[in-house]
């Protein structure tokens, strides 16, 4: 079995908080402190500097974190390979997914994945694309799934599904009488969009820029941090929203919302796996293969 102290240390080191680590691992804060103290005593070093209410890694702590991540990854591969000998697949995989993916793509897929691989423990962190990439860089997740168009050179991106953004209004909105609007008319309509850092907003911004339009040219009523928030806002206002068609497909069928075409504006994108460059753990490979089967990108 892997040294529990290393998992505890990794959690504290990536979250930089004893309290958050305790919540993440479902153990008491005194137990967290005890594990860290044991590691410090064993190696005769200080792993964290305490600065007021904050902590930060010492040089020894950073070295410990580098090795801890490699050891935990190696153990996950060992666990996977050994269980595979008995036709089982086990281990722990920490996934981070941007809001649209976590809400409208993953629930059904993860349910099916759990049926096929019941011994693999999955945890899911949700946030916007920027937050998911930050969590990956910090080592808080093993695999990210994002929806933006921006790329960081330290990461590897692999597309797994296509998606389209659509403009929509509530069916009671006078605009619902139209099927298509012009780009010039778009500038006049009160609109609600996702927040800065969202992959959805990145796609909208790039599509508009191709047509010589900046976000500042739009009549933005407000920015909201969730797709569901945008749906509820549009439902109770005369505003237009722009979100993934996957998020409103049922509401369109139920005639709650009406999609409006925008002349000469295509807002297409790909959902992407994002990983640190280097060797991919076998658990990640298994999950990626499962998700991508049946989808052509």
TrEMBL record:
- What Pfam families does the record point to? HTH_1, LysR_substrate
Q: Which residues form the HTH lysR-type domain?
A: 1-58
Q: Which residues form a coiled coil?
A: none
UniProt KW keywords: DNA-binding, Transcription, Transcription regulation
Q: Which InterPro entries match?
A: LysR_HTH_N, LysR_subst-bd, WH-like_DNA-bd_sf, WH_DNA-bd_sf
Q: Which domain of life is it from?
A: Bacteria
Q: Which family does it belong to?
A: Belongs to the LysR transcriptional regulatory family.
Q: What is this protein called?
A: LysR family transcriptional regulator
Q: Which organism is it from?
A: Segatella sinensis
Lineage, please? Bacteria, Pseudomonadati, Bacteroidota, Bacteroidia, Bacteroidales
């Amino acid at each position: 079995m892997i040294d529990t102290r290393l998992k505890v240390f990794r959690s504290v080191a990536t979250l930089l908080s004893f309290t958050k680590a305790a919540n993440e691992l479902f153990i008491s804060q005194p137990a967290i402190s005890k594990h860290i103290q044991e590691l410090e005593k064993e190696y005769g070093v200080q792993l964290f500097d305490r600065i007021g209410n904050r902590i930060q890694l010492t040089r020894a702590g950073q070295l410990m974190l580098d090795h801890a991540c490699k050891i935990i990854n190696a153990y996950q591969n060992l666990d996977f390979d050994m269980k595979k000998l008995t036709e089982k697949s086990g281990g722990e995989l920490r996934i981070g997914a941007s809001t649209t993916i976590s809400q409208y793509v993953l629930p059904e897929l993860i349910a099916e994945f759990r049926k096929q691989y019941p011994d693999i423990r999955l945890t899911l962190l949700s946030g916007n694309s920027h937050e998911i990439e930050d969590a990956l860089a910090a080592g808080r997740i093993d695999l990210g799934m994002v929806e933006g168009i921006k790329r960081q050179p330290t990461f590897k991106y692999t597309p797994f599904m296509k998606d389209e953004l659509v403009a929509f209004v509530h069916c009671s909105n006078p605009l619902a009488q139209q099927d298509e609007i012009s780009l010039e008319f778009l500038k006049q309509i009160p609109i609600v969009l996702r927040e800065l850092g969202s992959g959805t907003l990145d796609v909208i911004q790039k599509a508009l820029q191709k047509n010589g339009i900046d976000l500042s040219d739009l009549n933005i009523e407000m920015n909201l941090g969730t797709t569901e928030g945008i749906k509820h806002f549009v439902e109770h206002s005369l505003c237009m929203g722009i979100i993934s068609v996957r998020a409103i497909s049922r509401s369109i069928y139920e005639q709650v919302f009406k999609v409006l075409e925008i002349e000469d504006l295509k807002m297409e994108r790909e959902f992407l796996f994002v990983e640190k460059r280097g060797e991919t753990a076998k658990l990640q490979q298994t999950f990626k293969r499962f998700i991508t089967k049946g989808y052509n990108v």
